[in-house]
Amino acid sequence: MNRCKSIDAQLVGGNKDTGSTASQIYYLTHQILKLTSHLESHSEDYSSRRGLRKLLGKRKRLLIYLSDKNTLLYAKVVKTLGIRGLRKP
């Protein structure tokens, strides 16, 4: 848990604002990883699969918002969390 706080502090810049877009993306990514590992062993858990899709959609909307408002922070978040960036049309 200590590692989680340090990564969150790096993204937000020491600010304790858990409502910031970068913090929300971080916590959603953490939940997505936990749910993905659960679904690997329980492949027929359809309600958890639906929840995973909802979390992925929410994270995608936040990433779109962040890429429009602050491209430097967006690039830092994507690189630090190791997630795939948005596709360019």
UniProtKB/TrEMBL annotation:
State where it is primarily located: plastid
A GO molecular function assigned to this protein is: structural constituent of ribosome
Q: Which GO terms describe its cellular component?
A: chloroplast; ribonucleoprotein complex; ribosome
Tell me the InterPro entries matching this sequence: Ribosomal_uS15 (IPR000589), Ribosomal_uS15_bac-type (IPR005290), uS15_NS1_RNA-bd_sf (IPR009068)
Query: Transmembrane region positions?
Result: none
Output the Gene3D superfamilies linked to this UniProt entry: S15/NS1, RNA-binding
Entries under Pfam families matching the protein: Ribosomal_S15 (PF00312)
Q: Which UniProt keywords apply?
A: Chloroplast, Plastid, Ribonucleoprotein, Ribosomal protein
Q: Which GO terms describe its biological process?
A: translation
**The family this protein is said to belong to:** Belongs to the universal ribosomal protein uS15 family.
PANTHER family named among the record's database cross-references: RIBOSOMAL PROTEIN S15, BACTERIAL AND ORGANELLAR (PTHR23321), SMALL RIBOSOMAL SUBUNIT PROTEIN US15M (PTHR23321:SF26)
Q: Which NCBIfam families match?
A: S15_bact
What is the protein's quaternary organization?
Part of the 30S ribosomal subunit.
This protein's name: Small ribosomal subunit protein uS15c
Gene designation per UniProt: rps15
